[in-house]
Amino acid sequence: MYDCFMQHGSHPNDWARFQPGAVEGVTLMKAHFQQHAFERHSHETYSIGLTHAGVQTFNCCGTLHASLPGDLILFNPDQAHDGKRGAPEGFGYSMLYVPEDVVAGCADPEAGIVMPRHFRQPVVRGGALARQFAQAVAAINQPGETLRAEELTRHVLAAILVRHGETGTRHLDPRAAGGLRMNKVRDHLQAHYAQDVDVLTLAGIAGLSRAHLTRAFAQHFGVPPHIYLNAVRVRKAQEAMLAGTSLADVAVDCGFADQSHFSRRFKGALGVTPAQWLRQMRVAGTTLRN
Length: 290
Fold this sequence. Notes:
Arc Repressor Mutant, subunit A; six-stranded antiparallel beta sheet; four-stranded antiparallel beta sheet; globular; disordered N terminus
């Protein structure tokens, strides 16, 4: 069972706040959840977080993990995971969603900063890096500290990858025949995210049976096609909302059946509704510019 739907309803101790990070393209999330459970999903970005309170449990790479206060949460791009409380009081954490090009830009071979491309494991004890991460997050909202916040963010991103990364690639060789076929399927999902894509079409593109296609895609990209497609739709929806498109049009344009479907899938992946996310990003963006 690849997909685990979120719990419906809301709880007074459940909240999440999003805002632009110190580095362009990076998004900061601060949250606490007691009842909400994330459905299985993935992000196009690196997701690098710090647990502040309680216990968060999640399934990733076929293993159940627990993140305690002071632990760093390290997800690679397209690495599927879910998330829920591991203790009655829930869990609080902060998370930076970091595009791959931002991470690549933190490397500087001439300065001796040669970074791995992927994290070895999704949870590590933070120690000094956890304190540096917290300092970088705190600096984001400090007036007149834009330069400091950006430098702290880039420094801690590089430091975490150097300490907890691995040089080997997670995916199959893209030049191999299987890799090329899976890349064609990925490209089709990215190009046709607004359509109701079916497995038969994807299997035809890859030249595989339907059952083989799903297994091969999950092996290659870490998530099955439907989770990858939802991640693309959510990302496109975020871009469209920030560009001023109405929520009703976003739902239709990005391939969701209706606004209810859009809201359910969005909240399942991010913990807030599309309207809440948009309001937070606009308010935070205006505050930072001022």
